[in-house]
Design goal:
There is one protein chain. The chain is mostly helical and 43 residues long. The chain contains one helix and no strands.
Length: 43
C-alpha cells in the first residue's frame, strides 16, 4: 500500500484502520481477488 504523503492526517482514522486491516489480510493470504484474464468480449 502506498503512503498517504500529503494526505497524512487528512484521512479519517477509521479509513486508515480499515486499510491497515485489509493490508494485514492481504499479507496473511486471507484476502485474495479472483482475476479473470480472459479478453473481454465486444458486443
Amino acid at each position: 500500500m502506498a503512503p498517504l504523503g500529503p494526505f497524512e492526517g487528512k484521512v479519517p482514522a477509521e479509513a486508515v484502520a480499515l486499510a491497515a486491516a485489509r493490508e494485514a489480510d492481504i499479507r496473511a493470504g486471507v484476502f485474495t481477488v479472483e482475476i479473470n484474464d480472459d479478453e473481454p468480449k465486444s458486443t
